[in-house]
Design goal:
With 160 residues, the protein is mainly β. 9% of the residues lie in helices and 49% in strands. The longest helix has 15 residues, at 2-16.
């Protein structure tokens, strides 16, 4: 399984380098909160399959646009050799968190499916973004509705 984890790590690094940079003056930062989840299918005397998925976020610190990136690896083997390795991954552009350009910080976290906290599907994620030039923080929660589209709500934090 250690071999699978190493392959997942290198595949994730490869996918993250595919994120398009629109202009040289835009700065993209990697989220500090990456996760990996793996599952195995074991059957005595038959093929074994291990599947790992990982995600991260790439954030534009100027515009507050972000990309959700996911990579997966499936490894199939028998008792003697690795038979097949399949990888997949991409980054999906998400909308701006703030309407105006500034200097922003960002972090994200996700539920890991399957998850007992996920009532409607594969779970959801939370996004936190703050303006580095003002006391401004916005928290967003995005969950799967189970009906085809995600539900996304953001709230500006108040300071007391």
């Amino acid at each position: 399984m250690n071999h699978v984890m190493k392959i997942c790590f290198f595949v994730a690094l490869g996918v993250m380098t595919l994120v398009p940079v629109a202009r040289a003056d835009e700065l993209f930062k990697l989220s500090n909160n990456q996760r990996i989840s793996c599952s195995r299918g074991l059957a005595a005397g038959k093929l074994n399959t291990a599947t790992c998925k990982s995600y991260t976020y790439i954030f534009n610190v100027k515009t507050s646009e972000y990309f959700r990136c996911q990579v997966s690896l499936a490894l199939t083997r028998d008792n003697k050799e690795v038979i097949n390795v399949q990888t997949d991954g991409s980054c999906t552009k998400k909308p701006r968190i703030f309407e105006t350009d500034s200097s922003y910080s960002f972090d994200a976290t996700e539920t890991e499916p399957p998850n007992t906290n996920s009532f409607f599907g594969p779970g959801g994620y939370a996004i936190w973004a703050s303006d580095n030039t003002a006391q401004k923080v916005r928290g967003c929660i995005i969950i799967s509705s189970g009906l085809g589209s995600d539900i996304s709500k953001c709230l500006d934090m108040t300071f007391q």
